């Protein structure tokens, strides 16, 4: 592996440098070829670096930024006032070729808008989409998009998402001729919103896409499809619903091993079983797949959960490493021209 | 309790009389005041009744229907050709006062359209909504609507759903001043679709509604709100996603107790633990709360899952019994006038 430089928006997310800096150190420790540019308030970043290993710090550079984009500000307003912000400077590092990808846990709408403004969409793409890869019950993985880069999507956008998702499944997951489905409220052709039905019509006509029809919410984790396409609102709500249910189960399992008035051997047994089961379910823990890839740009941008903890933010950095190594952006660009109908 | 008569669309759902008839017998056995009208093909119903107890059958009447509305037909077409169908006749029983409620596992769109046509919406309601009550982590329950009666909803409809949901939480769950929230992709006021933001504005102005703002998908089961309002597309996908994840966990737990090459004591232990955990999670099993109530009509209509098994369809019948006993439809009608703004 060759040297790799990534830019981190160190101020983004609910916890800022308290999470992003330890996560950066963890990612650096795990990959000796990795270099990181930490963009943000130098004082805050330095405080979090105080006890860090000096050999690891040698592969880390602080880039000063004057401001932070708040998570509750409207994207349009955030973009207008973005000069000097940690998120914008991190993206500029990518634009200027100083970093190969950027990772931020900040305001999703602002990241989407700024990334589009600075890095530009690929030819044939109107709006980028947020994509993640979920584990499924068939021991495989499913590409899901859009997870909220866009609030609203028309049928043309859904078709573009489908094409990008298919490329990801082929190139990232090595699935030949991946199955592509649209998320809908029924499997019959007549079901759902007009935009979805129109997208289905177009997808059926694309020879390069293995379109298999509609799937419903209960098939999110069953492995019925390799690529699942939906608009950003539905994708965001669906993913968060899934995460909420998984977290509830994991916490119920955890409490199963706990105290109470049980005999010592019951407690031991409980803890042993809790560990066993947690191992079986650990791949479903949302922290394990944090980091959604903003697809469709001339550059690699990874969006982390705002509430990500250290482990989860480290996973997001590693997603960026992978995306760069697999040349995700370049591969999508190459395939788009071949797959998308010329009339679009 | 006084005598109660319900009409069952015996032909609806994926399994028709094979599920609806045994479930009807189970519901009759559980409630000696219950009488059922089974609407459908007399031969098919009689076959499923062959071994039934004659005392129970005395409280059951078969009403002949010539046809069945298929689950994959467009609602508009289904309604045009609905005369003589089991779903329509079951609804007519309610309209004519021969039954106090109707239960169907058939085509959702057709049920919604026919119910609106035959039973008429309450004053102040444009379109009925499908509602269910989910268990939450606070040992409480949450009213969720719309679950797919409408594919698309404008802000006025969302406000009406919120009012109906609040009435349900107060009257059915006995929650004083229930918290009402809109499902969105962020908690900040600026987030989400225009329709949701407009509905939020109206809800903030309604003195009778305890509107608490937006909640996200991960809060579906946390008990953060007593009433959760969303459009039918999002509600349907969200509920099905939740159900898919819960079923996956329950099946993983089940397999934990299974065979393999483990020692006998490991298998025993596994089965013991699986039972213990299943008991803890059983209230989350989707079969436990099957039966969504179609709110906003001059009559009680319960929609069962199309794929419901006998136990789940029995639960749907019991939902209808409750809705009638609690006078859900009448209570909503009484409250709507007081709560909804006159200008609407």
TrEMBL record, chains A, B:
<dbReference type="Pfam" id="PF02504">
    <property type="entry name" value="FA_synthesis"/>
</dbReference>
<dbReference type="InterPro" id="IPR012281">
    <property type="entry name" value="Phospholipid_synth_PlsX-like"/>
</dbReference>
<dbReference type="InterPro" id="IPR003664">
    <property type="entry name" value="FA_synthesis"/>
</dbReference>
<keyword id="KW-0443">Lipid metabolism</keyword>
<dbReference type="GO" id="GO:0006633">
    <property type="term" value="P:fatty acid biosynthetic process"/>
</dbReference>
<comment type="subunit">
    <text>Homodimer. Probably interacts with PlsY.</text>
</comment>
<dbReference type="GO" id="GO:0008654">
    <property type="term" value="P:phospholipid biosynthetic process"/>
</dbReference>
<keyword id="KW-0594">Phospholipid biosynthesis</keyword>
<dbReference type="GO" id="GO:0043811">
    <property type="term" value="F:phosphate:acyl-[acyl carrier protein] acyltransferase activity"/>
</dbReference>
<dbReference type="GO" id="GO:0005737">
    <property type="term" value="C:cytoplasm"/>
</dbReference>
<comment type="similarity">
    <text>Belongs to the PlsX family.</text>
</comment>
<comment type="function">
    <text>Catalyzes the reversible formation of acyl-phosphate (acyl-PO(4)) from acyl-[acyl-carrier-protein] (acyl-ACP). This enzyme utilizes acyl-ACP as fatty acyl donor, but not acyl-CoA.</text>
</comment>
<comment type="pathway">
    <text>Lipid metabolism; phospholipid metabolism.</text>
</comment>
<keyword id="KW-0808">Transferase</keyword>
<keyword id="KW-0444">Lipid biosynthesis</keyword>
<keyword id="KW-0012">Acyltransferase</keyword>
<protein>
    <recommendedName>
        <fullName>Phosphate acyltransferase</fullName>
        <ecNumber>2.3.1.274</ecNumber>
    </recommendedName>
</protein>
<keyword id="KW-1208">Phospholipid metabolism</keyword>
<keyword id="KW-0963">Cytoplasm</keyword>
